[in-house]
Amino acid sequence: MMWSSKKLWFYVLGCWSGYCPVGAAAADDGLAKNFVCQHPPYQPLLVSASPLVIYIKNFLTPQERLHLYTASQGKFSQSAVAAAGTAEDGDGGGSLASRHGARTSQSAYIPRDAVVHCIEERAAVFQGYDVAREQLEPLQLVKYGPGEQYRFHTDWLARDSVKAAHATADNGGNRLSSFFVYVHLHENNTDTTTGGGTNFPLLHAPRDERWCAEQLVNCDEPWDNGVTFRPVPGHAVFWRNLHPEDGHGDYRTLHAGLPVSTGEKIGMNIWTRQGPLNEEARGPEYYPDV
C-alpha cells in the first residue's frame, strides 16, 4: 500500500490515514448504545495563570472510563515517535516509526462513538464557545506498564522541526492546548498504581496543603522539581501550549510522563488545534447499531 507523505505523517502523529487501522473490533460494554450525553459536575482548580494550567477533578465519569478501557482492549501498539529519515523528511527513506527510548508506552485509538463524541464536546466547551469540536485531534489512549515512560517533551509542533510543515492552516495549525486525562489504574485488583505521575519541571508547585491532603500532587519532591501531578482516575490536567500574544510554543509547558513503578496506567491525550482539522485527519463518526 502506497501512502502520501501527508498520510504517513498523520499516522505517525495521530494514526490518521483516513482513520486509524485499529484491527479487530473492540469489546463492547453497551454504553454507546442509546447513550445520552450528560456532563459530570467536574471541578477545575487553577494551578498556573501563565502558562495556563488547570487541574480538573472528575473530568470523566466512572462509566466513561470503563467504556474507554473496554473499547481500547486489543488495540494498543507501540507508541509512535517521528524519527529522522522518515517520509515526512521528504527523502522517502527510513522507517515510519520505531521504538524510542524517550517514549516507551503503547497507544490506541478508538472509534468516535457517542461516548467519545460526548467527551470531545466537554473538552471543547471547557475551552470556551469559540473552540469547535472539529479542532480536536482523534483521542489517543496511552498505556504504561512498569518502567515505561515518556521523557520530557512539549506537545506543540516546533517551527524549526520537520513537524512544522504539518502545523499549517489546512492541518488545523499548531496544538493550541492539551488535556491529559487519567482513565484507568490497576495494581493488585485496586484502582491504584505506584509512580506514573505527570511532571512539569518549570512550573511552581502549588503550596496549599489541600493539594497534598487530597493526593493530587506529589508533595514528597523538592520544590525546585516543579510540580508532579499524581494519576487519579477520572481527573485531568489541562494546559495551553502556545503564547497568546504570538502563537509561539511555550517552553514552560515542558512535561514528562514519569515511569510507572508498579501496576498499570492508562491515560488519554486530548489535543486541540488552532483551527478545524480536515475530514481526513478527523476521521469518521461511528455509532453502533441500536
TrEMBL record:
This is Prolyl 4-hydroxylase, alpha subunit. Residues 1-26 form the signal peptide. GO terms for molecular function: iron ion binding; L-ascorbic acid binding; procollagen-proline 4-dioxygenase activity. Gene3D superfamilies: q2cbj1_9rhob like domain. GO terms for cellular component: endoplasmic reticulum. It comes from Niveomyces insectorum RCEF 264. SMART domains: P4Hc. Keywords: Dioxygenase, Iron, Metal-binding, Oxidoreductase, Signal. Residues 135-274 form the Fe2OG dioxygenase domain. The keyword Mitochondrion does not apply. Pfam families: 2OG-FeII_Oxy_3. Transmembrane segments: none annotated. Its cofactor is L-ascorbate. It comes from the Eukaryota.
